[in-house]
Amino acid sequence: MSEYPTDQELRFIRRYDITKEPTEDLFAFIQQTWHWSDWGTTRKGRRLYLHTGGWSGNESIIAAMEKNEMFWYLTWVESRRGGHYIFEVPPKMTRRHLDSQRIARAKQEGK
Question: Lowest CB count within 10 Å: 25, 45, 63, 75, which one?
Answer without folding.
Answer: 45
